[in-house]
C-alpha cells in the first residue's frame, strides 16, 4: 500500500493555475469551402491539441499568453502552420489546400477502423511510439494500452517478448504491416524478436479489440494490430539514435532519407543493432535489422518498395524458473551449454501501389514475399537414440542406447502472395464502401539434424532424422461499407469469406508420419451502427463473427485421420461511447465474446506422450473497458485505462498423469465455470505527464495486472500473483543551431523494485505416496520473472 500511496500522491501533486485563454475557429477546404471533420490541430510547445467536430469547429482551452504555432493537418491536404497570438481576438478561419501529391494513408485504409466504424479501437501515433522506444520490442511499447499484458522471456523486454489482449495470446491476435499479414501461417503467432527495432520504422498503429473489421491473414480472434510503416518525408534528414542501459543493453540506430527528389521520388533507410545480456542468466540477445524503402509519389498514384530484414541470435530462456527457486535464484536458467541458442533470419519484400482512380474511387494493391530460415540448437543429456530413429551403438560387448547429443531443429520457409482493396466514396460522402481481399501461400520445410554425438553412430552430420513439408493456402475477400442514413447516424456492414487449404507431408519430430490434408471455408459477417452527436460524442454498437482454423500443433499432435480438431468460432458484441474535446477525451465500451469449440490445453496425451489441445464447447469473455485523458492544466495531463472482465469456461475436463501404479494412466477431473487461463479480471494503467518547461517532459507510468491462473482449473496453487509496477520517463528535447533536434530520454523501469511474474506455465502428476501406499499430487510451476529496478537511456540526434 505504501507504493500505491506514494504513486497516487505524486499523481495528485498541486495543480498549477493557468489563464483561461482559448483558441477556436473552423477548418475548411480552401477550394470548395467544405467543413472538414476530424482535422488534427496541435499547438506547438504546449502539448495541447484537438480535432474538429462534425461542423468543422475546434476549440483549445486553457492556453497561456504568448505567440504559438498552430499545426493543422488532414488526410489528403497540405499541412498548414498558423502563427497565433494569445489572447486571440475573434475566431480563426483556416483553409487547407488539397495535397498535390497523393498520400500514403490509403495503404492501410481497407483494414482500418474509422471514427464511424462501430468497433473498439485505438490509434497510436509515431510520436507516442517514439516516447517509449529505446530498443525494446513492440509488445513492451504497447504495455500501457487498454487490456494489454506484456511479458519477456529474458525479463528486460529484449529478445523473446509477447503480449495478451483481453487474455487472448499472440496466436489469436492478427497483425498486419501495410495491410500484409505478419502472423506465422502455421502457429498463427508473431515472433517480434525477428523484427528487432521495427518500431523505429513505424509511422502509426491501430489496435482493434475484439473481432474488429475484416483484415488479411490469420483470423482476428481477440484483437488485431494494424501497422503502417514510415510515410513520405518531404525534407532530407539524418538521424542517429543510441541507447544504453541495465544488463549491458545497447541499441544503435542510424536513419537517413533523401526527402522529395524532383518532387516525386523518395529513398529512406534504417540500420539497427541491439544487444543485451538479459535479466535472466545467459539470456543474451544479438539482434540486427535494416529497413529500406523507395517510392514514387505522383499526383494520383504512389508506388513503394519496402525491403526489411531482421536477424536474431538469442540464448534460450524458454524453460522459466521453477517455483522452488523463485525466491532464492530468481534469474535461474536451466541451460548451461554455451551455444544453446535460437538463430533465425527473416527477409521481407513488399511492393505497394495506392492511387486515386477518379473523384470517387481509390485503389490499393500489394505483392509480398517473406523468406525465413533458421534453427535452434540444443544440448540433450543422456538422450534416447530411439527418439532419432537410431539403433543402439555397440562398443565391444556394450550396447549404448542413450548418450549426450547436440541437435538442431530447422525451419526454412517461404510466404508470398498479394492483397488489394478498392474504395468507393459517393459525391455526397454518404456511402463509403471497400472491396478487398488477398491470397497467400506458405511453404515451410521442418527438419532436424544431429550435429554431435557422445559416441559415433551410423549417421552423418547433415542427415535429417525428421523432415516434413507444410503448404498452406489462405484466401479471403470482403465487402464492407458505411452509409449515413440520417445526419450523424451511420450504418455499417462487413461480409468476409475466407478459405484455407492446409496439407502436410513427411515425418514429424516425434518420428510419426503426419501426412494429411484439411480444408476450411469460413463466413465472417459483421454489422453495427454509430451515432455522432453535434457535441462531439459517438455511440456505437456492433455484432461480429470470426472463425479460426486450428494451428499446426493441433494437427501434428492429433493425427488428422483419427482425431481432427474442430475449427473455433467467436461471436462478439461491442457497444460503447467515445468523445474528444480540447480538454479531455474518453472511451467507455462493453464487450461480450462468446466462443464455441475454443481449443485449450487439458493435459491429455496423444499416442506418443505429447500434450494436445482439445475443443471445449462453451466459453466466453465479458467486460468493460474505460480509457481516457484529461488536461488538468497546460503542464499536467492525466491519462489511463481500466479493464474489468469475467472470463469463463462452462465445462472443462483436466487429465492428470498418474505414476502411482504399475500401469500408467491419466485421471480425469471435471470442472464447471472456471476462469480461462491467463485472463486477469482487472488490468489498469495510469499515466501522469508533467511539462515543467519547454521541451522537458516527466511521465509517471503505472500498470496493474490482477491475479491470473496458469491453467483452466482455477487452482490457487497454479496462479500468477497480481502486481503493480511504476516506470519513470524523463525526456528533454531542444533545437540547437547545429542540428535540427537533440533529444535525451531516460526510462527507469519498475522504480519500486517490485518482484513480479506476468507469465508462466504449470503441470501436475500423481506419484506413489509415502511408504509406497496411496498417491500424492505433485504440481510443478515455472515462471518468467521480470527485472527489478533497471534503466535505459537514449540520445537521439536529428540532422
Structure description:
With 799 residues, this protein is mainly beta. It has 2 domains: 13-99, Carboxypeptidase-like, regulatory domain (Immunoglobulin-like, Sandwich), CATH 2.60.40.1120; 237-798, Maltoporin, Chain A (Beta Barrel). Helix content is 4%, strand content 59%. The chain has 5 helices and 44 strands. The strands form 7 sheets. The chain has a 22-stranded antiparallel β-barrel. It starts with a helix and ends with a strand. This is TonB-dependent receptor.
Number of strands: 44
Instruction: Could you tell me the CATH topology label of the largest domain.
Output: Maltoporin, Chain A
* Tally of discrete structural domains: 2
Estimate what percentage of residues fall within beta strands.
over 45%
Query: Which regions have little confidence, pLDDT < 50, spanning 5+ residues?
Result: 11-19
Calculate Rg over CA atoms: 28 Å
- Counting DSSP H or I runs of 4 or more residues, the number of helices is 5
- CATH C-level class of the largest domain: Mainly Beta
In CATH terms, the superfamily of the largest domain is TonB-dependent receptor, beta-barrel domain
Most strands sheet: 22 strands, antiparallel, barrel
CATH architecture of the largest domain: Beta Barrel
Helix content: under 10%
Decide which structural class fits the backbone: mainly beta
* Quaternary class: single chain
From the spread of the alpha carbons, the general shape counts as globular
Query: How much is the average pLDDT?
Result: 92
Rounded to the nearest angstrom, the distance between the terminal CA atoms is 47 Å
Protein name: TonB-dependent receptor
Membrane topology: Multi-pass membrane protein
Family: Belongs to the TonB-dependent receptor family.
Keywords: Cell outer membrane, Ion transport, Iron, Iron transport, Membrane, Receptor, Signal, TonB box, Transmembrane, Transmembrane beta strand, Transport
Amino acid at each position: 500500500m505504501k507504493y500505491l500511496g506514494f504513486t497516487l500522491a505524486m499523481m495528485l501533486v498541486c495543480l498549477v493555475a493557468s489563464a483561461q485563454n482559448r483558441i477556436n475557429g473552423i477548418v475548411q477546404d480552401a477550394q470548395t469551402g467544405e467543413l472538414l471533420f476530424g482535422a488534427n490541430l496541435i499547438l506547438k510547445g504546449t502539448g495541447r491539441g484537438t480535432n474538429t467536430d462534425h461542423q468543422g469547429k475546434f476549440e483549445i482551452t486553457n492556453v497561456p499568453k504568448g505567440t504559438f504555432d498552430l499545426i493543422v493537418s488532414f488526410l489528403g491536404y497540405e499541412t498548414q502552420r498558423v502563427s497565433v497570438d494569445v489572447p486571440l481576438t475573434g475566431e480563426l478561419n483556416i483553409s487547407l489546400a488539397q495535397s498535390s501529391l497523393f498520400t500514403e494513408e490509403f495503404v492501410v485504409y481497407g483494414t482500418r477502423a474509422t471514427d464511424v466504424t462501430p468497433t473498439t479501437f485505438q490509434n497510436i501515433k509515431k510520436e507516442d511510439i517514439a516516447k517509449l522506444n529505446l530498443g525494446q520490442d513492440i509488445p513492451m511499447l504497447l504495455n500501457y494500452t487498454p487490456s494489454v499484458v506484456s511479458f519477456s522471456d529474458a525479463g528486460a523486454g529484449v529478445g523473446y517478448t509477447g503480449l495478451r489482449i483481453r487474455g487472448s495470446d499472440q496466436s489469436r491476435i492478427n497483425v498486419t504491416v501495410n495491410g500484409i499479414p505478419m502472423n506465422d501461417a502455421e502457429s498463427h503467432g508473431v515472433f517480434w524478436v525477428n523484427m528487432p527495432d521495427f518500431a523505429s520504422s513505424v509511422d502509426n498503429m491501430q489496435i482493434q479489440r475484439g473481432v474488429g473489421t475484416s483484415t488479411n491473414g490469420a483470423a482476428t480472434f481477440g484483437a488485431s494490430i494494424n501497422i503502417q510503416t514510415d510515410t513520405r518525408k518531404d525534407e532530407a534528414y539524418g538521424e542517429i539514435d543510441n541507447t544504453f542501459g541495465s544488463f549491458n543493453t545497447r541499441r544503435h540506430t542510424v536513419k537517413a532519407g533523401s526527402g522529395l527528389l524532383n518532387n516525386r521520388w523518395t529513398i529512406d533507410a534504417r540500420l539497427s543493432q541491439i544487444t543485451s545480456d538479459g535479466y535472466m542468466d545467459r539470456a543474451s540477445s544479438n539482434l540486427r535489422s535494416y529497413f529500406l524503402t523507395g517510392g514514387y509519389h505522383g499526383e494520383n498514384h504512389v508506388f513503394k518498395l519496402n525491403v526489411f530484414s531482421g536477424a536474431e541470435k538469442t540464448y534460450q530462456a524458454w524453460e522459466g524458473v521453477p517455483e522452488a527457486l523463485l525466491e532464492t535464484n530468481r534469474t535461474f536458467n536451466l541451460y548451461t551449454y554455451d551455444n544453446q541458442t535460437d538463430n533465425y533470419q527473416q527477409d521481407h519484400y513488399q511492393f505497394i501501389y495506392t492511387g486515386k482512380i477518379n473523384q470517387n474511387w481509390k485503389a490499393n494493391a500489394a505483392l509480398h514475399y517473406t523468406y525465413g530460415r533458421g534453427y535452434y540448437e540444443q544440448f540433450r543429456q543422456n538422450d534416447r537414440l530411439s527418439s532419432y530413429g537410431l539403433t543402439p551403438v555397440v562398443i565391444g560387448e556394450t550396447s549404448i542406447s542413450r548418450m549426450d547429443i547436440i541437435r538442431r531443429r530447422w525451419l526454412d520457409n517461404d510466404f508470398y502472395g498479394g492483397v488489394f482493396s478498392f474504395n468507393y466514396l459517393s459525391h455526397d460522402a454518404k456511402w463509403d464502401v471497400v472491396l478487398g481481399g488477398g491470397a497467400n501461400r506458405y511453404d515451410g520445410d521442418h527438419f532436424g539434424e544431429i550435429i554431435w554425438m557422445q559416441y559415433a553412430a551410423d549417421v552423418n552430420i547433415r542427415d535429417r532424422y525428421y523432415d516434413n513439408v507444410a503448404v498452406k493456402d489462405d484466401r479471403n475477400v470482403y465487402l464492407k461499407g458505411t452509409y449515413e442514413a440520417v445526419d450523424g447516424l451511420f450504418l455499417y456492414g462487413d461480409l468476409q469469406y475466407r478459405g484455407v487449404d492446409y496439407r502436410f507431408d513427411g515425418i514429424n519430430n516425434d518420428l510419426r508420419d503426419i501426412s494429411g490434408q484439411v480444408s476450411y471455408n469460413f463466413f465472417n459477417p459483421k454489422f453495427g451502427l454509430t451515432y455522432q452527436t453535434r457535441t462531439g460524442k459517438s455511440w456505437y454498437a456492433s455484432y461480429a463473427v470470426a472463425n479460426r482454423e486450428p494451428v499446426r500443433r493441433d494437427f501434428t499432435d492429433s493425427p488428422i485421420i483419427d482425431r481432427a480438431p474442430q475449427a473455433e468460432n467467436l461471436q462478439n458484441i461491442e457497444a460503447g461511447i467515445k468523445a474528444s474535446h480540447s480538454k479531455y477525451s474518453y472511451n467507455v465500451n462493453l464487450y461480450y465474446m462468446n466462443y464455441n469449440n475454443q481449443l485449450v490445453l487439458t493435459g491429455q496425451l496423444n499416442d506418443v506422450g505429447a500434450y494436445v489441445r482439445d475443443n471445449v464447447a462453451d466459453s466466453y469473455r465479458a467486460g468493460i473497458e474505460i480509457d481516457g485523458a484529461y488536461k488538468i492544466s497546460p503542464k499536467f495531463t492525466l491519462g489511463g485505462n481500466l479493464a474489468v472482465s469475467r472470463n469463463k469456461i462452462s465445462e472443462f475436463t483436466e487429465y492428470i498423469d498418474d505414476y502411482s501404479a504399475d500401469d500408467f494412466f491419466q485421471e480425469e477431473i471435471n470442472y464447471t465455470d472456471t476462469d480461462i487461463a491467463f485472463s486477469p479480471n482487472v488490468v489498469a494503467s495510469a499515466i501522469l505527464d508533467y511539462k515543467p518547461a519547454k521541451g522537458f517532459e516527466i511521465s509517471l507510468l503505472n500498470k496493474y495486472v490482477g491475479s491470473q491462473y496458469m491453467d483452466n482449473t482455477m487452482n490457487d496453487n497454479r496462479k500468477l500473483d497480481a502486481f503493480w509496477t511504476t516506470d519513470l520517463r524523463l525526456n528533454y528535447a531542444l533545437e540547437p543551431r547545429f542540428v535540427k533536434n537533440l533529444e535525451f530520454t531516460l526510462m527507469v523501469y519498475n522504480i519500486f523494485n517490485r518482484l513480479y511474474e506476468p507469465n508462466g506455465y504449470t503441470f501436475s502428476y500423481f506419484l506413489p505416496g509415502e511408504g509406497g501406499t496411496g498417491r500424492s499430487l505433485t504440481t510443478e510451476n515455472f515462471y518468467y520473472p521480470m527485472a527489478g529496478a533497471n534503466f535505459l537511456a537514449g540520445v537521439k540526434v536529428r540532422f
